[in-house]
Amino acid sequence: MSGTIARAWAVRRCDGLVLGFTDHDRALSFEGIAFRPDSGLSARAVVQGLGLSVDNSEAVGALSDAAITERDLMAGRWDAADVRLWEVDWSDAANRRLIFRGHLGEVVRSGAAFRAELRGLSEPLNRAQGRVYHPRCAAVLGDGLCRFDLTRAGYSAEGVVVLEEGDRLELSGVAGHDAGWFEHGQLVVLSGAAEGLSGMVKADAALPGGRREVGLWTALGIRPAPGDRVRLLAGCDKRAETCRMKFLNYLNFRGFPHLPPEDWLIAPKVNR
User: Fold this and answer.
1) Which tops the pLDDT comparison, 158 or 52?
2) CA 81, 82, 83, 88 torsion-angle sign
């Protein structure tokens, strides 16, 4: 088999789309997946360790209209996609072995190509497990722990892009909200080339005439154009006061606001 070895990749996105790639010069097929040789996807050496160490590798490839497009990449549709890598005998695909399974991590675009980090099955062991005891809320606004309904009137608004300058956008048609109402919230693009992209709101200022200036923490991968519609979702800074006064949702607050601060442990004790 050593003289007929090729590599084959199967990548399953979170939306269910499955694509197959191979570094062989002809198409391969097994497990109901067609592995194409013309995708431009290849892999660097897979580093595998014993025990609980994290396997890692990189996938590099070219952007194309037929397989991995710039729009899908920038929209995050490839984030956390499931990845399997085989060594396969191209003369007999039944003779193969699975050498890597994991998911895509950070994806970096460079010109007409991309580079994606691969993370093995043991990678989740690096994450914090269990509940964190902290004065601020540990839930995500609107999730199953928070239980707040973001479709309630007043907690979202739609507008039209008037001006776009990287991580700063000026919108029209957004009125009736206090300045800062959408800080720590989300901006979602509803139309245009950037449709489906979203970003976290860093700053939110109300301007005269129903206009609004929104600053994002990071510019979107595909920039919205003037005339594109966007939706703003109210932001939460995770404080107990915000949960109680802004969202009227203190019953579901997932923090510990009365937890003593860290300096309490080293504060001098007063004898009484």
Assistant:
1) 158
2) negative
